[in-house]
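Here is an idea for our session: we take a single protein and study its fold together. To get us started, please write out a protein record for me. Once you have written the record down, we can walk along the chain together.
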Amino acid sequence: MTFNLIPAGTFMMGSSEDETGSRDDETLHEVTLTKSFYMQTTEVTQKQWEVVTGENPSYFQNCGDNCPVERASWDDVQEFISKINQRGEGTYRLPTEAEWEYAARAGSDTAIYTGSMTSLGYNAPELDSIAWYGGNSCVDYSGGRDCSGWDEKQYSCSSCGTHPVARKVPNAWGLYDISGNVREWCQDWYGSYPADSVADPTGPSSGEERVARGGSWNDVARGCRSADRYGFLSADRRFSLGFRLVLLPKSAVSQDRQASRKN
């Protein structure tokens, strides 16, 4: 796994009412993240998952070792994180929803990190260079899903699925597939946004579903916007749902503990 430093900062989370495809649960509000963090540059791959757990739950195993792991529930991911945290390299965890969107935007305030979008369906050329979505996720390996009935795809094909990570253009902070390929679990419960400015939000204290972000190989373009949100049960295992990690290095963990003692 590789991780890039995401600097602390302030951004507008959610979407404005005039953004094409904006949804009611994307209330625009100011968020400040007071601490920098490291985010994995790619989604966790099937090989990375298998090395830790000894198994591969993915539906698209024929895609290969370097394709994102999927069909891992939020609960499964917590067990995976617990195992790698035992290595003593630092603290791994899922990103908060705010961290995820801040990292995905990489300083942008548009629908996707390369600009605005005009199409919300399966034919969105604006996404082609940065994301595997329902309009371009054609595959030739066996075991792909039938996508012949999807309307007006950008590319004509009958079989679609996930693709190896890091094949598209990354955002300004070097993160690949932050839009598309698989949706990504976040730590938060799914719920309404606050209307006021907040710092280091962690979402509601309880809920029924966990947040997933970023769109996937079978999504229309609308679902790949930086502000778009999903909620899934923590036990859900879907072939469109994976994750990437945040890392607090061992040195940073030690500094945090020292600061806590002083306080």
Remarks:
- The chain has one domain: 3-117+171-215+223-262.
